[in-house]
Amino acid sequence: MSTLKVVPLGGAGEIGKNCTVVEQGDDLIVVDVGLSFPHEEHYGVDIVVPDFTYLLENREKIRGIFLTHAHEDHVGALSFLLPHLKVPLVCTQFTAAMVRSKLEERMHIKDVEFKIVNPGDKVDAGQLSVEFVRVTHSIPETCALAVRTEHGVVFFTADFKFDFSPVDGKQTDMTRLSEIGEEGVVLLMSDSTNVDRPGWGPSESIVVEGLRRVVQQAPGRVLVTMFSSNIHRMQQVFDVARETGRKVTSTGRRMETTIDMCRRLEYLRLPHDLYIRIDDVGKYAANEIIVLTTGSQGEPMAALSQMSRKEYSRLQVAEGDTIVYSARPIPGNEGAIMRVVNRLYKMGANVVLDSDSPIHASGHAYQEEIKLMVNLLKPFYIAPVHGEPRHQHVYNELAQQMGWPEHRVFTLSNGDCLCMDDEKAWIDQPVVWGEVLIDQHGNVPVNDEVLGQRAALAHDGVIVVSLALDVKAGDIVGKPEAQVRGFSGPEEAVFDALDDLCGALAKLLPNEVRDVDKVRVLAAETVRKTVSRRCQQRPVVISVVCEI
Amino acid sequence: MSTLKVVPLGGAGEIGKNCTVVEQGDDLIVVDVGLSFPHEEHYGVDIVVPDFTYLLENREKIRGIFLTHAHEDHVGALSFLLPHLKVPLVCTQFTAAMVRSKLEERMHIKDVEFKIVNPGDKVDAGQLSVEFVRVTHSIPETCALAVRTEHGVVFFTADFKFDFSPVDGKQTDMTRLSEIGEEGVVLLMSDSTNVDRPGWGPSESIVVEGLRRVVQQAPGRVLVTMFSSNIHRMQQVFDVARETGRKVTSTGRRMETTIDMCRRLEYLRLPHDLYIRIDDVGKYAANEIIVLTTGSQGEPMAALSQMSRKEYSRLQVAEGDTIVYSARPIPGNEGAIMRVVNRLYKMGANVVLDSDSPIHASGHAYQEEIKLMVNLLKPFYIAPVHGEPRHQHVYNELAQQMGWPEHRVFTLSNGDCLCMDDEKAWIDQPVVWGEVLIDQHGNVPVNDEVLGQRAALAHDGVIVVSLALDVKAGDIVGKPEAQVRGFSGPEEAVFDALDDLCGALAKLLPNEVRDVDKVRVLAAETVRKTVSRRCQQRPVVISVVCEI
Questions:
Q1: Cβ separation B462–A466 shorter than 8 A
Q2: B490 CB near a chain A CB, below 8 Å?
Q3: What would the pLDDT profile of A456-493 be if each residue is shown by its tens digit?
Q4: How far B48 CA sits from the closest chain A CA (Å)?
């Protein structure tokens, strides 16, 4: 029997850009094709996607891309892969609808083949087969995947929690989980995002109580900010609005298109007149309005952030408004969120970040839920993914407490090739992997060199020094000049640099002057050195040499 | 009687750069001269200090600078003010020692006059007088200030908590607080940092239990990261080391100098042989070592951050090490901290960010402690400071719950001139105020224009376009050329831009060509427009025109 390979191209040792290969013999499937968001040192980068080299090199073997659910970190990179790879996408109806709507922004989707499945369905993929198993999460129709191989089942939990009172009434299929556990799981690829939280996470449905209380006490309009994919949360806002006699509107393009799509496909259930256009808000009293808005992570261009800067023309935050943050900050976003929150307070609004009754519930399993999943599936090997090294570390400790010996728990990094045969498992040489940094306009990826240059430009700015050469005579013509942008050192440092440059040029012999490249390097080096000595700054220096 | 003015130049509506003026008639005192740290949009900025224009314009009236305690956000901007202003610094011995050590890095301090006081002392300042009242906080000898004016006492709480079992045994002077309350407090300037935390904060002394447990369970070295000014916390680490038979060393320049100073002045009490040099670490087994280190906020150049990147030559993190974060993340630093933490885990270390027994306690009063302070002092007016707008908002609600009517609680912004006479209080026209952005080398401050240029450079890089003009003939010589840095758009966008530029130049009449400035602007504009149209990027474009 051939060796089974499981290779995370993204999502191992990080939360984001989930993308994993399962490969046996001539058959290969891809589980999820997600993106991640840049951190603050990723200057000018909007999206990070996995390096797809391994998929493109093995394109003949790929039997399908299987999607667990429609969150950006699981499907957001499809538009960067599909133009180069024609394979079917296999997913539920809701996931397909969300993916179509996102793909349409970036590519022609008529060439994309969708295979729509229901939870419980099995799909063949060469010698492999994939079963979709319903789990609960913060977006509808999330499915774990049981991938059947010659060596047993490789089980992807997807993002999951055990929500015993889900908003849409559709629970995790525990019967199938335990049957698959009996059948024999060779490897569990497990969500580990909340592994550091002890106990059980709260059900999504308790959020309605917190929202109800906030809305009942709010003297004026209520703005609720959340992820635009959180359909269950939206449903609860609509329910509270109906109870409290308020109308709902929305701001932010993604929020609006998602609501439209979910109403059309009946993933949101609401009376026709509950949802109003934003232009009609003025027809109602302030305490008759709830606004759903993007911006829960402090993203500078999101609707709520623009409102906080008084730059959003369609809606202005006013005294008496209540703004509810119904989303947990992604680590690193706290500073940006708090800047928005403080501006909202200064406008006279009240901001609810936290409440005695919860206004947010995580979509990911806490410790006891993870243990339940492991107990149902009884995997031989475990690999915690969808977590940073700190989460993987805690998961490994948890697995050992549950009796899994250390050699049966793998801490995978992106690119690692986890191999299994009937006797053992081992990590082989990594495949080609990496992160590809992309701006919102989809230009060529930002490489490390460009990123390094941007960091230098951001820190100390740029100095452009120009001079003219009479190549025939081997003479410098006139005096060098300088232009600066983003440079905060003293003017004198630049003047001194130009003086030093004149001195250095004067020492050149005529035939050295004729070597334009040499003069260009000399000019940049001289200016760099003098400026650094004078004011300890290291601006980027670009020299321009005109030949006359 | 003359109007009493209280003017925050920093620290109102923010946590950082505390600096407040109290002024009556011809007398003016300054309370604290602090700095704040930049956020991620402050490119290339290391320190933010208040605009001191108001102090310099009123230099004749200033009777002294009174310092509550030695934290950077209360004393860190002194080195930017004192070279321009010769006034005495009035503070306790410990604060003076810390300030001296910091000032020495930036200026000659023999010209700086210190007046050393003990808690309980009163100091005259013209018609004003200032009494130092001991409070507990996370640094020794913190004092609240009772400023006596013609209209009653203006009371600055400083940063405080009610710690009834402080590590150094020195409690808040509650007797004086209640006596001053009886005397009559017209205005309370109150710490509001933790006003959103209900109940009572834990005593600093309970941290020893958490530290002890972590150290006892650690199989190898323990690295504890904390603020280098947290002397009480250090003392507890030394105490735990002695108990558990470990030696202590330190890394990070500021940590080392502070420990030296505190041992010399006996603010730290430890046996001579407990503290060892870092070069001697190799003489001990791993489980005999504790390392105190800087880097609790993920600062890129701090010792712990360098260790996580394997760039710190004096100490390497190894498998089996335990790293304890004994400090709360400042909002906005979470992302940087987690990147360090994940790298430490990847090196095989264990990281303790949180624990069943506390490894950190805040230095700031929780809600009930704030209420106790207010009840002891019974101020007529209250102004919550040392808090962002969100903290001020919560404090105002708290004050109203305690019976203070809305018009007796002021939400101050920096620059606001809070005026009082015997009948009323009002906010007058703001004075000159602002934030001054400084790089670590103390160059001229970074202004908004430079910051805007750096943001643009960081996002899309720079294109330098150069061309040569024959001014006499009114001709363009040769072809325009371009150099790029940090630009990630396609090369073709630049080629197209140069083509368009050639086209635009060809249309110029000879006398238009002779207008060099016009050509320069045309070149930059043309390149900017074409690049933006071709790839939606907006790099900074700098044009160089050589005249021949």
A1: no
A2: yes
A3: 999 999 999 999 988 888 888 889 999 999 999 999 99
A4: 15
Q: Which residue of B has its CA nearest to A486?
A: B450
pLDDT at A331: 81
Q: Does A200 touch chain B (CB under 8 A)?
A: no
- If you measure CA to CA, which chain B residue comes closest to A480? B546
Residue with tokens 């950190």: B360
Q: What is the average per-residue pLDDT within A342-352?
A: 96
Tokens of B393: 């908002």
Q: Which two tokens stand for residue A43?
A: 């200057």
What is the b/e burial string over B350-369, where b = at least 16 CB atoms within 10 angstroms of the residue's CB? Answer: bbbbebeebbbbbbbbbbeb
Regions of chain B with pLDDT less than 70: 442-443
Q: Are A77 and A33 in contact (CB under 8 A)?
A: yes
Q: Is B494 on the interface with A (CB under 8 A)?
A: no
Tell me the residues of chain A between 413 and 442 that have a Cβ less than 8 Å away from chain B.
439-441
Chain A residues within 8 A of B336 when measuring between CB atoms: 40, 332
Interchain proximity B338–A332, CB inside 8 Å: yes
Return the SS3 of B485: strand
Please name which of B294, B303, B299 lies closest in space to residue B325, comparing C-alpha atoms: B294
Q: What is the ipTM of this complex?
A: 0.88
Exactly one of B191, B321, B416, B460 is catalytic; which is it?
Answer: B191
For A440, the token pair is: 């919102």
SS (H, E, C) A145-206: EEEEECCEEEEECCCCECCCCCCCCCCCCHHHHHHHHHHCEEEEEEECCCCCCCCCCCCHHH
Interface test with A, best of B454, B466, B475 (most A CBs within 10 A): B454
Q: Is A454 on the interface with B (CB under 8 A)?
A: yes
Domains located in chain B, CATH noted? 4-199+362-438 (3.60.15.10), 205-352 (3.40.50.10710), 457-547 (3.10.20.580)
Non-local (6+) Cβ contacts of A285 within 8 A are none
Distance (Å) of CA B351 to CA A425, B203, B309, B317: 28, 24, 16, 12
CB-nearest partner of B535 from A351, A389, A441: A441
Beta carbons of B226 and B253 less than 8 angstroms apart: no
Largest CA distance in chain B: 89
Contact criterion met (CB < 8 Å) for A346 and B454: no
pLDDT band at residue A441 using 50, 70 and 90 as cut-offs: confident
